Amino acid sequence: MREMSVQARGVCKRYKSLFGPAKIALKRISLDVEQGEIFGLLGPNGSGKTTLISVLSTLIYPEEGSLSILGLNARRDRGEIRKIINICTAKPNFPWSLTIRENLVHYGMLYGLYGSAL
Question: What's the pLDDT at 8?
Answer without folding.
Answer: 97
